[in-house]
Amino acid sequence: MAKKLVIIMANTDPRNGQELGAPIFQASVAAAMEYQVEVICTAAAGCLMKKGVAEKLTMKPGDAKTIHDFIKDAHSAGVKFFCCSPNLELHDMTPDDLIPECQGIVGGAFLVEEIMETDCRVLTY
To answer: What's the predicted TM-score (pTM) here?
Structure first.
């Protein structure tokens, strides 16, 4: 059985907070179950790794807990978050703009290698 879960947040629209809860929650649950978990944020979801973005988002209006709070909780549980390299240009970011919970910047080869050369499962949102 795979001991690693890779969650790809590509089609998750940060403008719709309800879409952000499930992948981050699933990452936290898997980490609590002692799986190694990596969340790769790419395309529209890549902006979540930019300082100031997730802090302003909630799953629904009026929530006190922000999406960044959920990311911090997942990170504390052992989830590793990564930003895909094309997102730097797409979202006008530099490496200095990344939130502290982001482990770094990865390219397409990282994703392919993680999936093809390790014993893992993949969830895509």
So the answer is: 0.93
